[in-house]
């Protein structure tokens, strides 16, 4: 289907059928409600205004834009959740990071755990962290701006995984309020991370569904 703007929510609807729907979440919007009435507005509540049967399957950080998937009804939610758990889904992101990344591609394997005194920050812990893997590939380097455009494929789905892995690599994502140093934070007006591609087996047919969202930066 061609993307349409849902008049009741202001979100771009990229895909819709009787089992699932996908919206293009803008940066700065929560995926699910936060604590307190000032954090009630979110992608989930907006989508449910028009699709009351829509249920959350996964989340994007508030600063991250791009593909956000909802299941329609509990059975579809169970099926899609099982696909995520079995790693039958493939998620791809694009980011702008600080510095000129050496090498053209690689893999980051660093276990992550919540940094409780500083939550919601996460941190690397080789002793207590959960296994976390990210594959990356350089798309372009801009020496004049001292930044690199990079494609990211999270193999695991830990909280803030891409952000922490890139910071630990020495290349924080531009505009990252939690993990970027001052220069990298000031280099962009938002977190420069976008969920640009998602593929998964359709919960009804098993056929591979591939969805895409253009990178807005």
Describe this structure in words.
With 217 residues, the chain is of the alpha+beta class. It folds into 2 domains: 4-88, 2-Layer Sandwich (Pseudouridine synthase), CATH 3.30.2350.10; 92-193, 2-Layer Sandwich (Pseudouridine synthase), CATH 3.30.2350. Helix content is 15%, strand content 35%. It contains 4 helices and 13 strands. It has helices spanning 43-50, 74-85, 161-168, 182-186, and strands at 4-5, 12-16, 20-25, 54-56, 65-72, 90-98, 105-109, 112-114, 122-124, 133-142, 147-154, 193-201, 208-212. The strands form 2 sheets. Strands 1, 2, 3, 4, 5, 6, 7, 10, 11, 12 and 13 form an 11-stranded mixed sheet that branches. It has a two-stranded antiparallel sheet with strand order 8-9. Strand 4 and strand 5 form a beta hairpin. The two termini are 24 Å apart.
Topology:
Layout: E1 4-5, E2 12-16, E3 20-25, H1 43-50, E4 54-56, E5 65-72, H2 74-85, E6 90-98, E7 105-109, E8 112-114, E9 122-124, E10 133-142, E11 147-154, H3 161-168, H4 182-186, E12 193-201, E13 208-212
Parallel strand pairs: 5-12
Antiparallel strand pairs: 1-2, 2-3, 3-5, 4-5, 6-11, 6-12, 7-10, 8-9, 10-11, 12-13
CATH fold-type name of the largest domain = Pseudouridine synthase
> Mean of residue pLDDT?
95
Strand portion: 35-45%
How many separate helices? 4
Total number of strands:
13
Q: How would a crystallographer describe the biggest sheet? A: 11 strands, mixed
Spatial gap, N to C terminus: 24 Å
Radius of gyration: 17 Å
């Amino acid at each position: 289907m061609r993307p349409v703007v849902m008049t009741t929510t202001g979100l771009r609807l990229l895909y819709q059928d009787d089992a699932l729907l996908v919206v293009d979440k803008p940066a700065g919007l929560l995926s699910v409600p936060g604590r307190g009435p000032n954090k009630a507005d979110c992608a989930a509540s907006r989508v449910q205004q028009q699709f009351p049967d829509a249920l959350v399957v996964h989340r994007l950080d508030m600063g991250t834009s791009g593909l956000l998937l909802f299941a329609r009804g509990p059975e579809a939610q169970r099926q899609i959740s099982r696909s995520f758990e079995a790693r039958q889904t493939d998620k791809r992101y694009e980011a702008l990071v600080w510095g000129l990344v050496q090498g053209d591609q690689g893999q980051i394997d660093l276990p992550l755990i919540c940094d409780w005194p500083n939550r919601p920050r996460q941190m690397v812990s080789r002793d207590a962290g959960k296994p976390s893997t990210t594959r990356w590939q350089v798309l372009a380097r801009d020496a004049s701006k001292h930044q690199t455009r990079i494609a990211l494929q999270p193999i695991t789905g830990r909280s803030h995984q891409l952000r922490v892995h890139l910071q630990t690599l020495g290349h924080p994502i531009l505009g990252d309020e939690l993990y970027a140093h001052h220069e990298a934070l000031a280099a962009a007006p938002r977190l420069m991370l976008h969920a640009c591609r998602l593929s998964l087996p359709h919960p009804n047919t098993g056929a591979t569904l591939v969805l895409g969202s253009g990178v807005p930066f």
